[in-house]
Amino acid sequence: MSSEALKEDIRKTAREKAEKVLTDAKTQAETILAEAETQAKKITDRRVQDSERLMAQIERSEAAKARMECAKSVLSAQSRYVEEAFRQAETRVNELPSSEPDLYRSVLTRFITEAIAQLGSTHLVAVVRYSDRGLVEDVLRKIKAERMGSALTLDCSISAESLNARGGILLHTDDMRAYYVNTFESRFLKARDELRGKVVDTMLGRG
User: Fold this and answer.
1) I need a surface site. Which of 71, 102, 103, 173 has the fewest CB within 10 A?
2) What is the pLDDT of residues 60-117, one digit of tens each?
3) Which CATH fold would you assign to the domain 100-198?
4) In angstroms, rounded to a whole number, what is the distance separating the alpha carbons of residues 188 and 86?
């Protein structure tokens, strides 16, 4: 083989090797690029999912917070209405003995009858307001007269002590072992607690 032919053969072999190296490099670069793109997509997808989960958590938290704030507002409004209703009722009760004496007598009679029934004793002492003593004496006389001749005879005296209340009665046995408070204040307190309980139960979905 001549020197020129040998040189040409070397150049051809070199070109072929160079082309193969270049092809291999391109293939390797494409593989690396594809892997990088795949990894980038995985990372991006993961971050998108994390962001979506975070946004969902924030939305749930905000929704729960909004529901709680709404419930608090409604409960506050309900409480204000309840308190206003009781203020009006208490104002009317304060005026009842003078403004509506017949109604006050009826209410006081019911309070006394309930207290007697609760204690279930025939030897009782009533603590009432000084201004109600005459009215209570009259009510007790009528109850005694109604029970005359029965096994439920009533022996109830009125204490010299004055009841510190807007109206009603504190009744106790003569031995002081049992007592029953049936005043406007005690009734209002019980009614308030019951009504507040119903409002809270409604707000919590228990009622």
Assistant:
1) 102
2) 777 777 777 766 776 677 677 777 777 787 788 788 888 888 888 999 999 999 999 8
3) hypothetical protein PF0899 fold (3.30.2320)
4) 8
Q: Percent of the chain, pLDDT > 90? A: 23
Q: Report d(CA 173, CA 179) in Å as an integer.
A: 6
Could you tell me which of 145, 135, 147, 85 has the C-alpha nearest to residue 110? 135
Tell me the C-alpha to C-alpha distance, in Å, between residue 143 and each of 109, 111, 184. 9, 13, 21
Amino acid at 173: T
Domains of the chain, residue spans: 1-79, 100-198
Structure tokens at 180: 């029953």
* 169 strand-pairing partners: 182
Residue 72 CB coordination number (10 Å): 11
- Cα–Cα distances in angstroms (integers) from residue 90 to residues 86, 97, 156, in the given order: 6, 13, 29
d(CA 36, CA 110): 89
pTM, whole model, 2 decimals?
0.58
- Which tens digit of pLDDT belongs to each residue from 150-193? 666 778 899 999 999 888 999 999 888 899 999 988 888 888 77
The Cα 89–Cα 85 span in angstroms is 6
CA distances from 86 to 2, 96, 169 (A): 124, 15, 20
